[in-house]
Amino acid sequence: MDETTKSLNFIEHIIEEDLGKGFPNEALRFRFPPEPNGYLHIGHASSICLNFGLGLRYNAPVNLRFDDTNPTKEEQEYVDAIKRDVEWLGYTWDTERYASDYFQQLYDWAVALIKEGKAYVDSQSSEEMAFQKGTPTEPGTNSPYRNRSIKENLELFEGMKRGDFEEGTHVLRAKIDMNSTNMLMRDPIMYRILHKAHHRTNTDWCIYPMYDWTHGESDYVEQVSHSLCTLEFLPHRELYDWFLDQVVDAKRIRPKQREFARRNLSHTVVSKRKLLQLVEKDVVDGWDDPRMPTISGLRRRGYTPESIRSFVETIGIAKRDNLIDVSLLEFHVREHLNKIAPRVMAVLDPLKVVITNYSDDNEEWLDAENNPEDESAGSRKVPFSRVIYIEKADFREEANRKFFRLKLGGEVRLKNAYIIKAESCTKDAEGNITEVQCTYDPKSKSGSGTEESLRKVKGTLHWVSVKHAVEAEVRLYDRLFTHESPDTQKDKDFMEFINPDSLQKVTGYLEPNLKNVTAGDRFQFQRLGYFNVDTDSNPGKLVFNRTVPLRDTWAKIDQNK
């Protein structure tokens, strides 16, 4: 086995095996089939990258198909958001399809099944059907309506379609095997009555097909060769194949369903139902809240499509469900932003520093490198003046030798500027330090080449000139849940693990080069983390989101549990 073959995931092995048996490469076709009942999340990114990645690998078309069979939960907003997310991740679909495109064909096939004695209208209540279906260890019993005549079934089904009946009065079921060990094969429901407007077909239909009936048949209509699903659909494969058996033509491509493991992310939830709860209960500010694991939320937070694709490639495609530590996702965005994000200076918890031997009416514009990882990024000018801000945490009156920042009697270098020495400090009535008085060495200017500028001091601080500083709202986002797996704890609601500190808003002071930024611009605030401009931002009020800190601060927390 060569190295290329070894590196294939098990899905690719399946495809290679099919090609080796004579399946034509030009007949390969894939699809990404989201249900438009919510926004896509990081778990969907694996499926997107898998299906579209296979399309790129084999030069095969990939459909974007919306499985829109439930009008009570589906909205055009979700369709639009899904399309934006797939495009943002860098993929292009061959054709845009909808399960609702096939409602008439599905109906016609259902009528054909009734005529063949393979489907019937059941008039039991949902409770009666659930009881009659049996248990995993006990066989089911036949519905009292299972042997209705073909004529009566056709008339009832036509009446369901016309809207003659109320919701819940009738369903159409496939007639398979009430003794099957696979409970999904015990006469599954194919259609239910719903008097609801559909986002595409409006009120044209009063009956809607169930997912299991729609899925494989839609794949067949589109001639999808390999239908890839998450692992929870493995028990559905038998039904998928049974339904296909009823309609396939031997001359056409028969879709093959195969399953891969769902990838769950720690410190969050990826159930659409639970994500919707977070939105509806105002725990977050919408589906694209930067704390959400949705692709829209990650985009707004400042994640890059490259970092998400790299993360997906790293975790790979597996056959077992697994919980992936969110720190791995954060690693990939740090790695990418480190290469592309310009370095800037910002102070988020300001402490005033007055340089007493620097003239009050003087100011300089100093050279600052934009990105040491990218030579082509060039440099910029930053203003320096008598009064600057540094972070409060960067000064102590007294400190031990391991504290390499500013302390009384000690020296530090100001990034791109001068070496300063703390001479004294001022406190308020409560004893809080409000100002530090320093002196600077005029010959120690960074990059000047003087002997003083080459003098080694252990600490280097970021800073901002007070009179030039630009104010901004800075949103410090953290993990939404305190528990790594909040929705798997017995006897506890996942809401109990909401992190009360998942969002803190502070006023930051930024170098003036950031005055004219636009939404989506990304930066490294030196020594603080990676930040991007939020969509709420405008020229009158800048808003920045923290994408991720420079280091994984949660690693120490987890170690101390």
UniProtKB/TrEMBL annotation:
GO annotation, cellular component aspect: cytosol
Keyword tags: Aminoacyl-tRNA synthetase, ATP-binding, Cytoplasm, Ligase, Nucleotide-binding, Protein biosynthesis
Family per similarity comment: Belongs to the class-I aminoacyl-tRNA synthetase family.
Catalysis performed (reactions): tRNA(Gln) + L-glutamine + ATP = L-glutaminyl-tRNA(Gln) + AMP + diphosphate
Biased composition (Polar residues): 134-146
Binding site for L-glutamine: 67, 211
tRNA synthetases class I (E and Q) anti-codon binding domain segment(s): 460-534
Class in the EC hierarchy, top level: ligase
The protein, known as: Glutamine--tRNA ligase
UniProt organism field: Ulvibacterium marinum
